[in-house]
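Chain A, query sequence.
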Amino acid sequence: MQPDELLTSSQVCQILSITRPTLYHWIKERRLRPWKVIGEGSTHLFLRTGLELKRLKKYSGEKASPTASAIGLAERAIANILIYTHDRTVNDRIMPLLKAQGCHVVSVKTPLQLAHAIHRSSPEIMVLDLDLTQDASWEILAGVKEAAADPGALAPAILILSSSESTPDDAARALKQGAWDFIRKPIVDTVFLARFKWTLKRRLWTEMKPSQGETTIESHDNCLTLDPERRLLEIRSGPNDKQSIVAHLTPKELGLLSLFLQRPGRIFSKQLLLEIVWGYAAGIKSRTVDRHIENLRIKLRPQQYRIETHYGLGYSFTDNLPPKQV
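Chain A, predicted structure.
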């Protein structure tokens, strides 16, 4: 067997232009069969000849799965990404990479479209393809910062792609003016993904803290109130219930619940939770996340149902009471 006949999950997602949730859904529905499953079932290898591209692409026009139809892709995606580039080659290069990471991606070509998309899509990360040797690009960067300024929300992270003619001074100036990271073209996929993942993790870390001027994090229905400073969680059975149960959380449980409360509905893979909450801890296996989720559910009673398990994908947090409890 030749090495190029074997494909990883990421390569399959790039070839088919799909997200990991879609890939795992196809596996679960037996529309796509892995050649080999490694470890605890989270790593798959595929044979290039077994993809059956036409049959899989035809499926995308069929009725959506219950999960996908109930909650849109943008709400389930790990992050909303906005790309600004007039270079189709750049767009075709990075969009599949971002989708393969489970992101919802919107791409625009003009400054006017960019301004509208910032308000319409509420991106967490913006990838801006700018020629920083031109004054017009600096004007676009300033306009993006102004358009994205919202006192009630976290500012989106800005990742700049710049031409090979850009200088270190250009990079320093961009970072001083609010860019989170800076990459010179030509784009190298591995470098771009590493920089993007680092930017994403930094953006998610900022959400594990209360908003400015607040000391607690609450669920939308006010049934859960988290005090990160004291690691205390108040649990009420209903929004109008004045009595509460108080639970003391461990540091890792605090990190998990803080992230869930700030991003309800988003599916977090075990690997991403390990990287964000545990911080690249060496030797930690995905079962560590499972055990902490299990302990957190026990402490959340009677609201333990809020942490949902998604087979092959990870975990999400629902911020709504079931109809029978409303």
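Residues 201 and 276 are 6 Å apart (CA to CA). The chain has three domains: 3-70, 73-206, 217-325.
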